[in-house]
Structure formats: C-alpha cells, structure tokens
Design a protein that fits this description.
The chain is α+β, with helices and mostly antiparallel strands and 187 residues long. Helix content is 13%, strand content 33%.
C-alpha cells in the first residue's frame, strides 16, 4: 500500500514549498542584516526618539527618528553623532514635519555627505545625542542619548598583484577562503 503525503494531495511539491518559503522569508533576512540588536527608544519631556539598532558596521544605514509632543512654532531638533574619542562626526537638524515627527538617516562610514563632518573610522562605542529646542519663551531643551557599537569593515578585496605581476596567494591553512583552522589543529 502506497501512502501519499498530504502535500502531494494538495498539489504542492516539496521543492515548490521550499521556494514559497524562500520568497516569503527572504525580505526578513535582508532586514536582519541591516543592523544588529534591538531598536532603542528614549524619551524626555516632549521628545521621544528612536535609534534603529544597537550595533552597526560600515555601509549599514543608521536611522534616528522621533516625535515631538506639544511642538512650539519655532522649535527644532539637532542630532550629533559622537565617536569614541568625543569628536562629532555627524551633525544634522532634520525638519520636524506637519505630523510632529522627524527622521534622519546616514550610511555608517560614509566619507561624503552634507551632514557628515568626518567619516566614522574608529571601532568602538558611539553616542547619539538628540536635542529638541522648544524655542518658546523659556527656551526649554530636551535631550536623549543613545549608545551603539560600531565596527569598521572594509569591502572584500580582489586578489592583489605582487611586484612580479603574479596574483599573491595566502599561505595554506592560515586563513582565506576555506583555510580556517582551530588553534589545536593548526600545525
């Protein structure tokens, strides 16, 4: 007696099911690699701000967004990104929209851009200081701070040419593609 799978009775082949699963879940895999860690949310007074992760690598998008409650007419938001040596590397004043929100995004490690003062070239913990200047009669300032880890990464380089014009090769068993080894097993 041959028993058929319920999947075959529905006309779905296992390979087709795998393809459907890959299509459904592929966008989620991409989003996971965009940043690492949980979204961070901080608030003080009329300011609530969000940072889209806890750690980033070169080339990933860092997004700071937020909302303003009871917005004053002449108010504004300022964002400073500060490197591990206390240097401001990114500074922005995103517009506050009609629905009292703001958003600012930049590429980690980018060397050019209107708001980029210096490229992010140091590994370590960076701080993001988000300030809301109410600019009413008493000029209240609300500030929140985030900390995120940053790792400088480089793009994968193609094999380099040695002085003789030959492609330089790595020593076998000492790294490179497929050449990894555990300390106890390297001899």
């Amino acid at each position: 007696m041959i028993i058929s799978s319920p999947l075959f009775e529905l006309g779905i082949r296992p390979l087709g099911l795998t393809a459907i699963a890959a299509i459904l879940f592929a966008p989620n895999l991409t989003a996971v690699s965009a940043q690492q860690g949980d979204i961070q949310v901080e608030s003080e007074g009329d300011l609530e701000a969000t940072l889209n992760g806890e750690s980033f690598r070169t080339g990933e998008t860092i997004t700071i967004s937020g909302t303003i409650e009871n917005r004053a007419v002449e108010s504004f938001v300022n964002i400073d990104v500060i490197d591990p040596e206390s240097t401001i590397v990114v500074q922005a004043s995103p517009p506050i929209t009609a629905d009292d929100t703001f958003t600012f995004s930049f590429e980690a490690g980018a060397e050019e851009g209107f708001d980029i003062l210096e490229p992010m070239v140091r590994n370590g913990n960076y701080r993001v200081l988000v300030s809301y200047y109410e600019n009413s009669g008493d000029f209240d300032i609300y500030e929140v701070e985030f900390v995120f880890g940053y790792a400088v990464t480089s793009t994968v380089a193609s094999p380099s040419l040695s002085e003789s014009g030959e492609i330089a090769e790595e020593e076998p068993g000492r790294g490179g593609a497929g050449g990894g080894c555990l300390e106890a097993n390297c001899r």
